[in-house]
Amino acid sequence: MSDLESIRLSVIIAASDSQEAVAQAVSSLQTQEGLEQAEIIIAACPSITPLEGVRWVQAEVGSGVPRLRRLGLTLARAQVVVWTEDSCRFQPGWIKGWLAAFQHPNTRGATGPVEPTTGQAIRDWAVFFCEYALFLKQKESAALRAPDRLAGNNYAVRIAELSSLIENEIHETLVFAELNDRAHDGLIVVEVPEASVTHVRRFGLFEALHDRLRFGLEYGQTRARLQPGIPLMFRILSAPLILPIQFGRISRAVWKDGRYRIAFLKSVPLILAMLSAWSLGETLGWAMGEAEERPLTPGAGSEDEKRGQTEARASAPISPLPRPGYTDDQDAV
């Protein structure tokens, strides 16, 4: 790993899947060109224990990905931070793509493509389409888009742009809104085609539905906190629009891309079920209002557990390595 003076990028991996998943994610970064200019930071759930060779912070029980992102940010030492997850594997040129994008002084934020793992179960396709259909990699001949959102598992920001958002959690939708508010300053958000990841995580059906419900609930509560003046009745009455709007966006993106139309058609019933769970969660979040805030501290426990939450030595080798081809296989739907 590089000296502090040469670090230009802090890569924060929100680790919520498994021990093996985060080891594979870290391993896939080791062959990246430009790694000497980056530091790797893992923000992990309590069930995942530290790996050697990366900086590490462990969260308390019940922490979601937005909270893991924020915990990882407490260790970041570079001017640019990129957030990703242990569900990702990084394509060649990923680090170099971010570094090149932020060489332009007006770049304040960026997002990269997200591709699926082929041969997935129907439920895994449904999860992918619900979360990442809008971030499919464009064809080589396509013109670059000005992104209208950030891929939750693959985006980067200058830390200086986060001054009003450094609270308890980092939500990509709020980050993007904050960046857009400063558009008049001549700063830009860009798409970085070279910074591509592959989403490999597989899900159980109950887990997939439960996650959509929980994510929608958290998002609804966040919106309620930031937009307290909107009447509760209006929030509830507008809830039925969430599902058709989301489904329409997903359908257009997949159909325009053209590569995954068959997988999309097969997974439509599950997509609708997952979007319904999200819509219900967001409606409940709006109705319930802001959740009680928790202090931003790593997980508590015994002295041995606390010692295990400290960062690992940056110069140590990465170990242990998982078996090749890990995808957290589960039975197909």
What this model shows, in words?
The chain has 333 residues and is of the alpha/beta class. The chain folds into two domains: 1-113 and 151-202, Spore Coat Polysaccharide Biosynthesis Protein SpsA, Chain A, CATH 3.90.550.10; 124-129 and 204-291, no CATH class. It has helices at residues 19-29, 65-73, 94-101, 122-132, 172-181, 205-226, 232-238, 242-257, 261-288, 303-308, and strands at residues 9-15, 38-44, 55-58, 80-85, 88-90, 107-111, 114-116, 154-158, 188-191, 197-199. Helix 1 links the parallel strand 1 (9-15) and strand 2.
Helix and strand layout, with pairings?
Layout (H helix, E strand, L loop, with lengths): L8 E7 L3 H11 L8 E7 L10 E4 L6 H9 L6 E6 L2 E3 L3 H8 L5 E5 L2 E3 L5 H11 L21 E5 L13 H10 L6 E4 L5 E3 L5 H22 L5 H7 L3 H16 L3 H28 L14 H6 L25
Parallel strand pairs: 1-2, 1-4, 2-3, 6-9, 7-10
Antiparallel strand pairs: 4-8, 5-10, 6-8
